[in-house]
Amino acid sequence: MRKAIIGIVALAMVLFSSIGLAEQEIKQQKFELPKHSFEIGPEVSHIEYKEPGVMKEDGIMYGIGAAYTYRINATMFRVEGKYSYGQVDYQNSGTIDGIDDYMFEIRGLLGFDYRISDKSIITPYIGLGYRYLNDDTAGMVSSDGSFGYERESNYYYSPIGVKTLSYMGNGWLWGITAEFDYFWRGQQKSHLSDAISSLNDLENDQNDGYGYRGSLKFQKKVDTMSFIFEPFIKYWNIDKSEDKNVTYSGVIIGYGYEPENESTEIGVMFMVLF
């Protein structure tokens, strides 16, 4: 899978290099990216989380994102953040509807701008990211009589990708983002004591996995602002976690782990750029 993602990034670079070279034949004023820029706006997405053969959750998330970008001597520094909230439905041997979920993510990126024509710029980048997801069924009861509990998911990763931006005329720009997310580590905290007070809470370490994401950006400049419409997809595939002992009133009664899982989020962002 990692080889496939690297191949997609390479293909995108070749494709946009070809487009940029062809555009050199079109006489048009060279466009420049601003030294400082700030983006903010809402997003909406559908998220699906699956543990194959075990359970599934899905629902709609509503959020807000923001980013600050600083460019100097063709070097890009960018900080991104987002918060989203929604309700998801759980399906296993039983069902629970209307579970509160919220997600927080922050990323720092370092990239380098390469001008491939007067109209096109390509920016390879690398960075660090943190993603937190809270899924809270504490106090809820499944249709099969099972008691719910709060779950906290933490991912630490490095985004490695490429952004492109091309000027189309009349204030319009468009571009793509193709990214592979190298998973460093994760931790899943399961508050089993929410379901049965004598059980201990588990903290399971996750050591292997990967992610990828892509988006298509359309940007329109109006006076001193730009408006951005950006459909996106984000995907994570995380392997089974390490085992941890499960205790009842301090006595070991078994072990627990976070199963192999995958999540897919598909949505759209609407941003204003200053």
Description:
This protein is 8% helix and 67% strand. It is built from one helix and 14 strands; from the N terminus they run H-E-E-E-E-E-E-E-E-E-E-E-E-E-E. It has one domain: Beta Barrel (Lipocalin). The chain is mostly beta strands and 274 residues long. A hairpin with a 3-residue loop joins strand 3 and strand 4.
The count of domains is: 1
In CATH, the topology is named Lipocalin
Residues in helices, as a percent range? under 10%
Cα radius of gyration in angstroms: 22 Å
Determine the number of helices (DSSP H or I, runs of at least 4 residues): 1
Overall mean pLDDT stands at: 91
What is the level-2 CATH architecture name?
Answer: Beta Barrel
Sketch the topology as an H/E string, one letter per element.
HEEEEEEEEEEEEEE
Low-confidence stretches: 1-28
Give me the CATH superfamily. Answer: OPCA outer membrane adhesin/invasin
Give short descriptive properties of this protein:
274 residues; mainly beta; Lipocalin; 10-stranded antiparallel β-barrel; two-stranded antiparallel sheet; 1 helix; 14 strands; 67% strand; elongated; disordered N terminus
Describe the SSE topology.
Layout: H1 2-23, E1 36-51, E2 55-72, E3 75-91, E4 95-112, E5 114-115, E6 120-136, E7 150-169, E8 172-190, E9 202-206, E10 209-222, E11 225-238, E12 244-248, E13 251-256, E14 261-273
Antiparallel strand pairs: 1-2, 1-14, 2-3, 3-4, 4-6, 5-6, 6-7, 7-8, 8-9, 8-10, 10-11, 11-14, 12-13
Summed up:
The protein has 274 residues and is mainly beta.
